[in-house]
Design a protein that fits this description.
Radius of gyration: 22 Å
CATH superfamily of one domain: ATPase, nucleotide binding domain
Strand content: 15-25%
Helix content: 25-40%
Structural class: alpha/beta
CATH topology of one domain: Nucleotidyltransferase, domain 5
CATH architecture of one domain: 2-Layer Sandwich
Distance between the termini: 61 Å
Bound molecules: adenosine-5'-diphosphate, 5-O-phosphono-D-xylulose
Length: 510
C-alpha cells in the first residue's frame, strides 16, 4: 500500500493542496481554491476570516485526493503552511472572535511605535529580542484589538497564527512552532522563548493567552474525527508542526542548509536563506526569523509583488500570457518608466503610508507595454533592495531559487536574473510552500517512527531543479538595472517624508 502525505499552503489569495508519495516524493495530485480579502475596510486594514481558509482547505484537499486517486487509509501525515503573521483571536470555546488582521495590514503602525517605546525604542527592542516590532507582525495587531475593540479583547483566550488555526481545526491542539511564532515579534528569536517584556508591554495577562511553543520537528497533534470526516480522511492521521509559508517554502525549495537563497514571488515578495545562527540586522530591515527546521531564516519581505503586476494585468484585461507578451515588447529599463511599487504601503523599507509612484511618464512610455514591464521591473528592484541588504549581512547569493506565482513567467525570470545579477533556477515542484509542508510532514512521520533522519536528507533526495528553466544574467541588462536600482532607491528615500502628508490629503478628500 502507498503511504501518502498531504501538504497544504494557505496563502493570501488561495489555498493549495498537494498529495505526495512518501517513498518517491512525487506529487500525485494537486488542487487550489481561491478567495479574496474582505472588501471595503478602512485604509490600511487587510482582513480575512479564518473560516475562509478552513473551507478552502476542505475543498482543495478533497480535490487533490481525487486527482491522486487516493484512498483515505493511505494518508499517513499532513503538514500545513500558512501566510505568516495574521492574528487569529480565539475565545475560550475555540470560536474565532473576529476576522484575522493579515500580514499586509498596515493599520497598526501607531501600536508598533507604542510597544517599542515601552521597550526603550527600536534599538533596545532589537537588542532584547532580535526582532523589531514592525507593522505586519502580529504583536501590534493584539494591542490594536485591546485598544479599538475592548469587548472583543475581553473574550480573547488564545492568540493563533493562520497555520496554527488550521492545525487547531485539524487536531484540536493550540500550539505554535518556532518558525511561524518568530513572526509574532513576541519571541526572543535567539533563545526561541516568548519575550516577557514585549508581552507585558501589550498586556501583563497576555502570556496566558499565548500557546506553548513546540520545536518544528514535533507533531502538532492527530487528526480529529470531525475534521477527518470533512476532509474525507481517517481520524488519527499525524499532523506535523507546520510553519509559516516562507519557512515551508525554504524546505520545499531545498533551502535547508546555508548557501542557498530562495525568492518567492507571490502576493508578497520574500527573499530568504537558511542559517545556522540568528542573523540580526542592526537596521531591522531583514527580519531575523527562525525557520521551521529548528534553525534560522533571515528574510526580507516586500508587500507589493504580484499586487502590482495583477493590478496592471487585470485593469488592462490581459491573460498572464498577454501581459508577458506586452512587457516583452519594450527593452530592460522600459525607456525610463520606473515604478516605486508601494501600492499597499510597504514594510521594507518601512513606509506604511506609501503609495505607488510612476516616474518617467512621457508620450513614448505612456503605453500598456511600458506599464506592464515597469510593474515587473519595479517590484523586482524592490526585492533586490533586500537582497543587497542580505548580502551585506553575509549571505552568499550565487544562485536564487525562484518560487511563487510570478516565477511561472519566463520573462519575469529573466528580469530576476538581470536585476539580481545571479543565476535563477526553478524547482520541478513549483508550489514550494505546499511541497515543503508535505516534506516536513514526512520528516515528522519518519522521526515519530523512530528513524534518525535530518531534514536535508529528505530535501536532497526529493527537491529537484528544473534545468529547462535555468536563467542567467545578461551583462547589458545587468548594467541597466544597476542604474535603475540607484534611481529607485533615491526616489524612495526622497519621497518618504511626503507620504504621510499625502495620506492626510487622501483621508480628507479621497
Ligand atoms: N505566469 C504568471 N505570470 C505572472 N504572475 C503570475 C503567473 N501565474 C500566476 N501569477 C500570479 O501569482 C500570484 C499567486 O502567487 P502565489 O505564490 O500563489 O501567492 P500567495 O501565496 O500569496 O497566494 C497571483 O497574483 C497570480 O496572478
Ligand atoms: O509577511 C510575510 C513574510 O514575512 C508574507 O510573505 C506572508 O507570509 C504572506 O505570504 P504570501 O501569501 O504572499 O505567500
Amino acid at each position: 500500500m502507498r503511504s501518502l502525505l498531504i501538504g497544504i499552503d494557505s496563502g493570501t489569495q488561495s489555498t493549495k493542496a498537494l498529495v505526495v508519495d512518501a517513498r518517491s516524493g512525487r506529487v500525485l495530485g494537486a488542487a487550489a481554491q481561491a478567495y479574496d480579502l474582505i472588501p471595503n475596510l478602512p485604509p490600511g486594514a487587510k482582513e480575512q476570516h479564518p473560516h475562509t481558509w478552513r473551507d478552502a482547505t476542505i475543498k482543495a484537499v478533497r480535490a487533490a485526493l481525487r486527482a491522486a486517486g487516493a484512498r483515505p487509509s493511505e494518508v499517513v501525515a499532513i503538514g500545513v503552511s500558512g501566510q505568516q503573521h495574521g492574528f487569529v483571536p480565539l475565545d475560550k470555546n475555540g470560536e474565532v472572535i473576529r476576522p484575522a488582521k493579515l500580514w499586509c495590514d498596515t493599520s497598526t503602525a501607531a501600536e508598533c511605535e507604542e510597544i517599542m517605546a515601552a521597550l526603550g525604542g527600536f534599538k533596545a527592542t532589537l537588542r532584547l529580542q532580535g526582532i523589531a516590532v514592525l507593522p505586519g507582525f502580529t504583536a501590534s495587531k493584539i494591542l490594536w484589538l485591546k485598544k479599538h475593540e475592548p469587548e472583543n479583547y475581553a473574550r480573547l483566550a488564545t492568540v493563533l497564527l493562520p497555520h496554527d488555526y488550521l492545525n487547531f481545526w485539524l487536531t484540536g491542539e493550540r500550539v505554535m512552532e518556532y518558525g511561524d511564532a518568530s513572526g509574532t515579534a513576541l519571541m526572543d528569536i535567539r533563545k526561541r522563548r516568548w519575550c516577557e517584556a514585549t508581552i507585558r508591554a501589550i498586556d501583563p495577562e497576555l502570556m496566558d493567552k499565548l500557546p506553548p511553543l513546540i520545536p518544528s520537528d514535533q507533531p502538532a497533534g492527530r487528526l480529529r474525527p470531525e475534521a477527518a470526516r470533512q476532509l474525507g480522511l481517517e481520524p488519527g492521521v499525524l499532523v506535523s508542526a507546520g510553519g509559516g509559508d516562507n519557512m515551508m517554502g525554504a524546505i520545499g525549495t531545498g533551502n535547508t542548509r546555508p548557501g542557498i537563497v530562495t525568492a518567492s514571488f507571490g502576493t508578497s515578495g520574500t527573499i530568504y536563506a537558511c542559517s545556522e545562527k540568528p542573523v540580526v540586522d542592526p537596521a531591522g530591515e531583514i527580519a531575523a526569523f527562525c525557520d521551521s527546521t529548528n534553525r534560522w531564516l533571515p528574510l526580507l519581505c516586500t508587500m507589493n509583488v504580484t499586487v502590482a503586476t495583477e493590478m496592471m494585468r487585470q485593469d488592462f484585461g490581459y491573460t498572464h500570457a498577454q501581459f508577458e507578451k506586452k512587457a516583452a515588447q519594450v527593452p530592460p529599463g522600459a525607456h525610463g518608466l520606473l515604478l516605486l511599487p508601494y501600492l499597499e504601503g510597504e514594510r521594507t523599507p518601512n513606509v506604511p503610508d506609501g503609495t505607488g509612484v510612476m516616474i518617467g511618464i512621457n508620450p513614448r512610455t505612456f503605453s500598456a507595454s511600458h506599464y506592464c514591464r515597469a510593474a515587473m521591473e519595479g517590484v523586482t528592484l524592490g526585492m533586490n533592495y533586500g537582497l543587497q541588504r542580505l548580502v551585506r549581512l553575509g549571505v552568499r547569493a550565487d544562485q536564487i531559487r525562484a518560487t511563487g506565482g510570478g516565477s511561472k513567467s519566463r520573462l519575469w525570470r529573466q528580469i530576476m536574473a538581470d536585476v539580481f545579477n545571479a543565476e535563477v533556477v526553478t524547482l520541478k515542484v513549483s508550489e514550494g510552500a505546499a511541497y515543503g509542508a508535505a516534506l516536513q510532514a514526512l520528516w515528522c512521520w519518519r522521526l515519530q517512527k523512530g528513524e534518525k533522519v535530518a531534514i536535508h536528507e529528505i530535501t536532497d533526495a526529493f527537491v529537484k531543479i528544473n534545468p529547462a528553466e535555468t536563467t542567467r544574467p545578461r551583462p547589458e541588462a545587468v548594467a541597466v538595472y544597476r542604474e535603475l536600482q540607484a534611481l529607485q532607491d533615491e526616489l524612495s528615500r526622497r519621497l518618504r517624508p511626503l507620504f504621510p502628508q499625502h495620506r492626510q490629503f487622501v483621508l480628507r478628500h479621497g
